[in-house]
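Weekly sync, protein design subgroup
Attendees: M.S., D.O., the rotation student, P.L. (late)

Item 1: inverse folding check
M.S. brought a backbone from last month's batch and wanted to see whether the design step gives back something sensible before we order anything. D.O. pointed out we never logged the input encoding, so this time it goes straight into the notes. Structure tokens as presented (137 positions):
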């Protein structure tokens, strides 16, 4: 089995770069890029083992999106349970109209922050909640 793949970009062989030029004399061609497997240590599930750059990846997706989606179609929406917490805190606005020597006035007000928390029983989330409660200021 080879440690290389050819780029799957549908127009990879038409991009005019020096790395794609092959042949001798008057028999020159533009060839698809040969990609070494594992060149990014399986970064992003090894997607870069099949595409030489993002342009080739997006060209492939544009051309084959309906076939890709047909592999695992989504028939209904996915949902994740959450808890929404509203938190008030003191913040500042700046009044630029009445400032002394063209300096803005800093005006305090109460702002609202919306925090979305997961309601999963996953141990990592429980640990984060425990850690937040223990070291909360």
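Designed sequence read out in the meeting:
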């Amino acid at each position: 089995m080879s440690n290389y793949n050819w780029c799957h970009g549908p127009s990879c062989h038409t991009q005019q770069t020096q790395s794609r030029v092959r042949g001798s004399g008057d028999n020159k061609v533009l060839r698809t890029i040969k990609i070494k497997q594992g060149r990014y240590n399986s970064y992003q599930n090894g997607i870069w083992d099949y595409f030489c750059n993002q342009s080739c990846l997006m060209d492939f997706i544009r051309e084959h999106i309906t076939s890709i989606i047909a592999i695992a179609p989504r028939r209904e929406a996915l949902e994740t349970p959450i808890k929404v917490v509203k938190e008030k805190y003191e913040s500042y606005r700046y009044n630029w109209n009445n400032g002394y020597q063209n300096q803005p006035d800093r005006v305090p007000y109460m702002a609202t922050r919306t925090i979305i928390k997961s309601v999963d029983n996953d141990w990592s989330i429980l640990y984060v909640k425990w850690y937040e409660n223990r070291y909360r200021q």
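Discussion: The chain has two domains: 4-71, 82-134. The chain has a mean pLDDT of 85.
Action: P.L. to compare against the previous round before Friday.
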